[in-house]
Amino acid sequence: MAFELPNDFRCPISLEIMSDPVIIQSGHTFDRVSIQKWIDSGNRTCPISKLPLSESPSLIPNHALRSLISNFAHVSPEQEDHSHSQSHPSISTLVSRSSSRESRLESLTRLVRLTKRDSSVRRKVTESGAVRAVLDCVDSVDRALQEKSLSLLLNLSLEDDNKVGLVADGVVRRIVAVLRVGSPDCKAVAATLLTSLAVVEVNKATIGSYPDAISALVSFLRHGNDRERKESATALYALCSFPDNRKRVVDCGSVGILVEAADSGMERAVEVLGLLVKCRGGREEMSRVSGFVEVLVNVLRNGSLKGIQYSLFILNCLCCCSREIVEEVKREGVVEICFGLEDNESEKVRRNATNLVHTLLGNPMEA
């Protein structure tokens, strides 16, 4: 080739252009042959971040990067502008450095509408290499450009292959920055995007270990409006399904904030607490929050089936560790409430109610 390929196309291990790029759970991309040799040699850490890998690490194809390398390798600099002109016109406008602010905003608006319902357009955007241009718009101080680009990234994340690729492309750093200083609307979209990305297991670890990602969500939960707080709690719930993230969320001072949110009627906060109670630090923090038992009992009396299910589970976990909490729960009339739930339509509610009764009456069962 008469021109240089970008360094991003080179495997960090072999330093050669990747022919089969794959993403590991740290979020970094390597050529399949090189990372497989690394793993087969007994290594169980990421060569770049040094984060631990699972015993049998998954290698997820990075289709977007592979397509980008293929297109770049077969298109000369003179042909590049022509190839862009053959793609979707809105994509061409978005990636063109000569496009005005107004034309970029118009292209983003059109692509947001199209990618919301058309997976083929979502694939076309990622395979064209336009994600970089979209990320640049997220970095913009222009709030309109920022909000539309976040909405487009949210639509692109509907494709599972894109979820990992977006994290590898550096979207988490942009999300954290928006959560810190963005407009209320941008913050809400950013939190929703984080939730979408965290659906994929490999991303939960990457996002959770990213500096300030969890603390930004907790701050958003504390200071946001109702919509923003709900989006933040939903993102925390998605991240906390990965055990290592629970301690990180607790260490950010989230428990008291979540209890306040639960007391105000946000049942998603109860669901997050239902995950945090599985770690020792979470249980210890909950036991220190004055009035927490009353909040959960109120959910038992007035909440939805899911809220009741999680409240029963949390109370059982706390009662298994504290005789003082057992006595407080009894005084609140929880035994009688549990007896009334033993015929509930939800199997999980029935099981959790039975387990809590056994714990309260001195014959604890496994939570």
Automatic annotation (TrEMBL):
Residues 4-79 form the U-box domain. InterPro entries: ARM-like, ARM-type_fold, ARM_PUB, Armadillo, RING-Ubox_PUB, Ubox_domain, Znf_RING/FYVE/PHD. It catalyses: S-ubiquitinyl-[E2 ubiquitin-conjugating enzyme]-L-cysteine + [acceptor protein]-L-lysine = [E2 ubiquitin-conjugating enzyme]-L-cysteine + N(6)-ubiquitinyl-[acceptor protein]-L-lysine. The keyword Electron transport does not apply. Pathway: Protein modification; protein ubiquitination. Its EC number is 2.3.2.27. Keywords: Repeat, Transferase, Ubl conjugation pathway. SUPFAM superfamilies: ARM repeat, RING/U-box. Residues 76-98 are annotated as: Disordered. Gene3D superfamilies: Leucine-rich Repeat Variant, Zinc/RING finger domain, C3HC4 (zinc finger). It is an enzyme of class 2 (transferase). This is RING-type E3 ubiquitin transferase. It comes from Brassica napus (Rape). The lineage of its organism: Eukaryota, Viridiplantae, Streptophyta, Embryophyta, Tracheophyta.
